[in-house]
Amino acid sequence: MMQPNLTRERRNASLGRMASLRSALAAAAALPALTGCVQVTAPERPIEINLNINIRQEVVVRLQEDVRELIQQNPGVF
Amino acid sequence: MTRRMKLMVAAGLGLAALAGSSAYAYGMQDAAGELRSTGQVGEQADGYLGLVGSAPAAVRARMDAINIQRRAAYTQLASQRNATIEEVAAATACQIFANRVGPGQYYRLPDGVWRQRNGNEPVPRPDHCG
Description:
Chain A is mostly helical and 78 residues long. Chain A is built from three helices and no strands.
């Protein structure tokens, strides 16, 4: 009468251990995904000239005649 | 008599000033071009000269002097045209790239890479030129 009870308890215990093992494995599997979120990689592209921030293209186009004169009025500078 | 003398002196001074300024202009006529032709300095899409590689301090000083003059000119035009200094500078770069970079001279687009103009092939226009 004692034997089946023991085995059932042992089975329950082993089942519990397996469950905890499984959750640990799941957590381990989730870990790389978590680290992926906070991973910081160095930029691959070279440092660029800081050009595209304050420039409105229509203004650049509008200024073409003015800058042509500017170049002519400042010999040696351009 | 004294009035005539005064006039003569004034005319003489005027002529001297004229000769001086033209000589000055002649001497400075191609300061930027001379620097470009050394290959140590090139034109950038931001409207300023830049060092292509490492260069002696004297070359750097001449380049800086020209860039200061450029910035002054850009600043003045920007205030007259209700534009930013950067916009005037970038607009000037469009003209410089099209007309001033000679064969074998260097230019740099916003990608940051120095390129040498191959013979008489046209220099690419920076994207902001439209």
